[in-house]
């Protein structure tokens, strides 16, 4: 690209920070996908990584090209709107499909706090004696 040398140092540092932040958030989402145990836990981490990671990278792109072209570049806002709308909707659809599948197969839902303590399964959990 021509003109990258004309980019002010404060803008270059801000763009670099936002790109690195977006990359780190996306990496955290990927690690969450790999490390978490159940499907319902796994589906949450990449959603956050996609939304916030892509948002940071898109903000960096807006700043970079706005500074280079000396006019406001807003094309990335459309991309951010589509990602912000479609990612949570996709999460909900995947979670509902998995829940429907689990109910159809007769799998029993076990809350996370009960998985950690196997002795607490069963009984009245209302807090009354």
UniProtKB/TrEMBL annotation:
InterPro entries named among the record's database cross-references: PhaG_MnhG_YufB
Single GO MF descriptor: sodium:proton antiporter activity
Transmembrane segments: 12-34, 46-65, 77-95
UniProt keyword Membrane present: yes
Keywords of this entry: Membrane, Transmembrane, Transmembrane helix
PANTHER family, alphabetized: ANTIPORTER SUBUNIT MNHG2-RELATED
Name of this protein: Cation:proton antiporter
């Amino acid at each position: 690209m021509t003109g990258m040398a004309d980019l002010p140092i404060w803008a270059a540092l801000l763009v670099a920070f936002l790109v690195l932040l977006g990359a780190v958030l996306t990496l955290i989402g990927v690690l969450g996908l790999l490390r978490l145990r159940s499907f319902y836990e796994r589906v949450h981490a990449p959603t956050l990584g996609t939304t916030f990671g892509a948002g940071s990278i898109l903000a960096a792109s807006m700043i970079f090209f706005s500074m280079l072209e000396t006019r406001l570049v807003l094309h990335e806002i459309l991309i951010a709107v589509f990602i912000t709308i479609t990612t949570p909707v996709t999460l909900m659809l995947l979670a509902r499909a998995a829940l429907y599948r689990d109910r159809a197969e007769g799998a029993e839902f076990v809350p996370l706090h009960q998985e950690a303590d196997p002795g607490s399964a069963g009984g009245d959990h209302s807090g009354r004696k």
